[in-house]
Amino acid sequence: MTAKPPARFVFRGNSMASGGYLTRLDGKPVSLPPDITTVHGESCLPPSGGISHSIREEPALAFAPWITYGRCETRAEGITTPDGSRKTTVYTSVQKVRVMTRPSPEDHVPGVRQIAVEAASIALTVESLHPQDGQPVFRLSKPPVVEGLALQIQRESNKPFIVTPIELVFNHPLVNGYTMEQFEREFMGDRCFFDQYAPFFRGAAPRFGRKPPRNTSGYAVTSIVQGFKLGDKFYQGNEHVEPGFGRIRFGAMLADGSSRRITLLETQFGSDPAGASSHGGVDTNGVWEN
To answer: Which residues form the domain of 164?
Structure first.
């Protein structure tokens, strides 16, 4: 009889600091030639694990002044713990993020010349622990950092931007040590728990007594941000639509039984220029082969 080979774990931890691109500028479509880099600060683990570390002190920015950011650093680490579990830690950070566009007449914001979203510093560290039996757990090993986050509006040329600060409220059991099985059990059986977290799922409307909705790929689409304060007003949820700019999304998360993918700041901006950007992203997962 041939002995059964030991269980093998396949690591898949990744992190991304910042990236973005334009799709339209000065009324013309913008293409992406293969020699243009739109993402800076990337770390990726091979199946065997180990350490991947990247630093970009001064990234070459192809779409300045519309999409700019400074120092980027990422790290992905995959190791075996003394009890045989597999531990993955992914880290991302970026400084001086700024995404800007110009409203068009169709946006109906007369007197506004430019609108920007800015953050002085963004950082995220997520740790996952995959035991040999049972589902993995995921934790924010450090509090997320989104410092100096603000919406900026310029109404006249050569005049200062009007700055409105944005403060995020972070909280979600799926990055606080809950397995997906534990989360689903409380979501279906605890009415208070359901009422607290159901509003943050995208897709089909959640129903008490049923599992959280999943998309066609099997992921729960939700957020680690439960609400945000824009100036003096508080809003529940993780998205803000600003006329003349577009959509701003905070802390978006894709989750299933074995993975969490989180991005702290995303923009989809229209008018002219139009484009998209992502900042502070991690993806921590992995799987036992046997």
So the answer is: 10-288
User: Is 2 among the domain residues?
Assistant: no
Q: What is the per-residue pLDDT across 251-283, written as a single tens digit (0 to 9) for each?
A: 999 999 999 999 999 999 988 899 999 999 999
Judged by phi (left if over 0) then psi (alpha if -120 to 50, else beta), residue 193 lies in alpha
Is 243 a member of any domain? yes
Residues 140-196 have pLDDT tens digits of 989 999 999 999 999 987 788 999 999 999 999 999 999 999 999 999 999 999 999
- Judged against a pLDDT cut of 70, whether residue 2 lies above it is answered with no
Instruction: Give the DSSP letter of residue 198.
Output: G
Query: Residues with Cβ < 8 Å from 39, sequence gap 6 or more?
Result: 16, 18, 19
The whole-model pTM stands at 0.93
- Give the model confidence (pLDDT) of 210-234 as tens digits: 999 999 999 999 999 999 999 999 9
Residue 45, strand partner residues: none
Spatial CB neighbours of 73, under 8 Å, sequence gap ≥ 6 = 17, 41, 54, 55, 56, 91, 92, 93, 94
Please classify residue 233 by burial: count the beta carbons closer than 10 Å to its beta carbon, then call 0-12 exposed, 13-18 middle and 19+ buried: exposed
Residue 273 lies in a domain: yes
Geometric angle at alpha carbon 247, from 263 and 265, rounded to 5°: 20
| Residue written as token pair 């570390």 | 53
What gap in Å lies between CA 177 and CA 27, rounded to an integer? 48
The secondary structure element, H or E, covering residue 187 is: helix 180-189
Beta bridge partners of 276: 21, 268
- Residue 20 counted as domain residue: yes
The answer to whether 174 and 255 are in contact (CB under 8 A) is: yes
Q: How many domains does the chain have?
A: 1
Neighbours of 32 (CB within 10 A): 11
